[in-house]
């Protein structure tokens, strides 16, 4: 089973709060469970919400950055 480590970047500092999610289907799903936002894999640096670290069986550690969706950005 893959666990996901989510680093919350919403406050702007690089050492944000870490949350571990044990059961998720994807990094996006893990982030949604952790912070309650629907996020995407591309966006502006200012829209960065989380970094998600995970490791599938037999593979190296991976990380994806997830950003606020453009439509959600307009509502902030």
Give an overview in words:
This protein has 76 residues and is an alpha+beta fold. The protein is 18% helix and 33% strand. The chain contains 2 helices and 5 strands; from the N terminus they run E-E-H-E-E-E-H. The chain has a 5-stranded antiparallel beta sheet. The protein is globular, with a radius of gyration of 12 Å. The mean pLDDT is 88.
Q: Key terms for this structure?
A:
globular; alpha+beta; 5-stranded antiparallel beta sheet; 76 residues
Strand content: 25-35%
Largest sheet: 5 strands, antiparallel
Radius of gyration: 12 Å
Write down the secondary-structure element order.
EEHEEEH
Strands side by side in the biggest sheet: 2-1-4-5-3
Structural class: alpha+beta
Shape: globular
Through-space gap between termini: 35 Å
Residue stretches low in confidence (pLDDT < 50, at least 5 long) are none
Helix run count: 2
Strand runs, count: 5
| Mean pLDDT across all amino acids | 88
**Which percent range fits the helix content?**
10-25%
Provide a concise account of the structure shown:
With 76 residues, the protein is of the alpha+beta class. The protein is 18% helix and 33% strand.
How are the secondary structure elements laid out?
Elements: E1 4-8, E2 18-21, H1 27-35, E3 39-40, E4 48-54, E5 62-68, H2 70-74
């Amino acid at each position: 089973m893959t666990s996901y480590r989510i680093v919350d970047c919403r406050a702007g500092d690089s050492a944000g709060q870490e949350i571990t999610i044990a059961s998720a289907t994807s990094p996006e799903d893990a982030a949604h469970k952790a912070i309650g936002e629907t996020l995407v894999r591309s966006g502006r640096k200012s829209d960065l919400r989380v970094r998600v670290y995970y490791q599938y069986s037999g593979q190296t550690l991976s990380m994806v950055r997830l950003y606020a969706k453009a439509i959600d950005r307009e509502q902030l």
